[in-house]
Amino acid sequence: MSGRSSPVAEFPYLPPSHRDLMQDLRSAVEARLGPHLLPSAVPPDVLSFHSPSGASRGALDIRSGGRDSPVDFILESWLHCELPTDLLPRKDLVLHPDYLDEFYQKTNLDKPRQELAKLPQVQPYCSSSLYIRSVLSPTAIAVCINCGEDGQSAMEDIMRGRLDTICKEIVRIWLDTCASSGKQLGDTERADLLRRDGLIKNKTIEIDLAANLPRMFSPEVANRVVGEIQKAFKI
Hints:
The chain has helices at 16-33, 44-47, 97-105, 111-117, 130-135, 151-179, 187-216, 219-233; strands spanning 48-50, 56-64, 73-81, 122-124, 143-145. The chain is mainly α.
């Protein structure tokens, strides 16, 4: 989300309603966090990359937080492949019901999920990966949207009529309540969170990116992209 034109911001393979939503969300995050972020240092061949055949394309941009930033970094990416092909809790919600109350119940963050669940095309999403199911927060909104024979037309209606408002509200809550929070963690709690985050980041690269990017693009392209993500993840 830098001032320069970034391939990440173009979303060339999305239909209009989806592209408009993504650009609106980027603008909202940029308006709030942009002054606290350093310029992107991602090389051009990672900002935009593609497979040798051109069948798979992607873009990745990363901006680290400055000294006074409330976030470590912002990572943006999209992948497009011609082949067929989530809010982690910052505390254990069973052990810390006060956290659940402050960030989920008082903000009414479950309302968007309830609104989505009313749509006949929407079903809960359950990952085929046991690991993903084990780390995915029970508060995460993960759904499948099956538009059936109506296809793209129905999806456009859902995007503009429901998902646009829902996604913007979730990002607003995150910006207002989490990204701008002045709360400080104790040393032990911070160390535990960093350890947990590090384990998830390592597994994300091992199970998802390292396994799938070489197949979609090529080992050389995948190594460049994963390398930049590892820098941001500090692993």
